[in-house]
Each structure stands twice: as structure tokens, then as C-alpha cells.
Amino acid sequence: MRAIAIGVMLFAATAFAADEDAAMGKRVQDLLHAHQADVFGCVAAANGTVKGEMLVRVMVGADQHPSKAEVLKDQTGLPSVAPCLQSKMQKWDLASLKASTGDQVVFPLVFKPEALAKGEKRVLVPMSAQDAQGPQRFLIDDESIGEAPLASVAMLTLPANATAPAKTRKDEAEEMVIYVLDGGVKIGADTLKAGDALWLGAHTDRAAMTPADKKPVKLLEIRAHGDGTGQKVVKGADAKSYKIAGGKASVKLLLDGSGAKLAVDEIDAEPGATIASHKHAHEDEELFFVSGRSTTTVGKTTYETAPGDAMRIPANVAHTMKVTEPLKTIQIYAPAGPEQRFKKEK
Questions:
Q1: What is the CATH number that goes with domain 124-237?
Q2: Over the stretch 196-224, which tens digit does the pLDDT of each residue have?
Q3: CA within 20 to 30 Å of 336's CA: 45, 122, 231, 283, which one?
Q4: Is 2.60.120.10 the CATH number for 239-344?
Q5: What contacts 341, CB < 8 A, 6 or more positions away?
Q6: What 3-state DSSP class applies to 267?
């Protein structure tokens, strides 16, 4: 896997005690996590594999934005990454660092393979732990979480002039869902736009995929064991929505187990929306955070989520979520079942 291990050094006029250094380190880690889409956007745009170490020094300005961002060391071998990061970092709000005007923060970014230790498991899969291979990024699979999930999730990016060839699936005993995150795509005779989905039953071939408007397309490819047959196009505009979390959130059911053995939905929630603690006896719940932020507790561990994160909540594990910024997430249940409760919420 390719990942970024990030540390921090702080240079300021005042001396910091060890516990203050640790607290600053944590705040910097949180800031980088919040802006991981910027970092990985620069990585994805680079023409080649990003490796090695980079040191970026940021000076805190009077408005708590960087007054200057400069690269002290660049071992990536790809000259486009550094100026891209400098440009992105200039727009970051540094207030969460609780640093003073004139303080200098050095971000060491180390681009190197990362693997889970033997026996280690992962619930939250940030972008730094997602394996990117060409146009495909693996969000949830056995390597990213340390065990086999009941559904796997990958992101596929199609450039404007690209075609994903037709795929024969006669030997695949898995159901597949193609969900359009951004852009429009032609899949055989069907045209799907953002928020639409295509369900393919087990052993059902997938037609070739091409961008519909000669613009890049981002797709989620979801796979789960199932014996449903045939295929079905689900238009997001036609899917039924239900209010949840006391009216502070809504869930749009794209697939609810009718024909398919898995469920896929969209959740949109406003700050303050809370999903009470609950668990699912036999189903995996998987989430891809499109935008916004939340504080999500799984078992005894609390995670701060950011756009680009993926999360897998194993069956029979209690979990709860509080939304801190306007949130949009794609939710998957494998097998289907828990989504039926949304139809009964008020």
C-alpha cells in the first residue's frame, strides 16, 4: 500500500514542554487529516509514483492562515507535487493549531508503503491508508482493514477520454453496484449522472463505461457476495428519502434489499445530527465520507472523520455518530436489512 506517514516539528520563539509538544503534534495530525484531499489531490495529479520525503515549512500569519509556505526538502523526484502543495496549504485555516503569529510549523511528509501489522485491524481507513493503483483506489478490502469485509469498496476515476472496457463476470458469484460520485457515465445503453447507481447481479456482465460529457468521472465500485440476478438502474432523483435523527438528517434508499442482497443509500445530515448508539447483529456497515465531518464512535474508540475517509463497522459492534459539519456519506449494508429501520423513523 502507498501511504503518507506525517510527523511535525514546531519552531517558535517560546519553549514548549513535552506535553505541549505532544498536544501540538496531535493538532497538526488532525489538521493534515482534515486537508487530506488536498495532499492526495496533488499526489494523484503527479505524473508518476510519489516516493520519498518532503519537508514543508509554514509561517503562521496574523489572520491564522499561512503567510508563507516553502519546501525545505523534496525527495519525491516529481517537481509538480511541491508547488501544488504550497498552493493548497496557503489556503488552510491554521486556527486549530493554536499557534501564534510568526510561529513556523514544519510538516514532514513521508511517502512510503504502509501495511497493517500481522493481526492488526482497522476501522477508519483514511486516504493515507488507501491503496492507489492507477485510476483505482481501494477503500475497503482485506488489506486496508486487516480482514475480509462482507463488502469491498473501491473508487475508480475515468479521465475524460478514457474507456473502461466491458467486463465478463460469468465466473463472479458477487453482486456489484456502480455508484456515480461525480460527473456522468455511459454504461452500455444507460447514462448515469452523480447520485445514480447501477446494480448488477451475480454472473452478470458489465458493459463498457465511458464519460458521458467528455469530463472526468468518479465512481464507487461496491462488491458483495449475493445470488441476485439481472441488472437494475436506479436514478437518484427517483429514490425515496426518509427523515432520520429527529429531522436533522435524511437518507435516500437507492438499493434496499429488493432483488439485491446488499443495501446502498445516501445520508445527508446537518451539524448536530446524532445517530444514537446501536449495532447490527449480522451485517457489516460501510461508509464513504463524501463531504463534511463527524465524530463517530465504534466500540470504545472515537474517530474524527474527514472527506475521503472510508469506514467499516463490523457486525455486532455498537456505534454512534455526531455530525459536526454538513455531512454527505454513502452507506452500505452487507447483507441488506438494517436499512429497513429508516422507513419507520420519524
A1: 2.60.120.10
A2: 999 999 999 999 999 998 899 999 999 99
A3: 122
A4: yes
A5: none
A6: strand
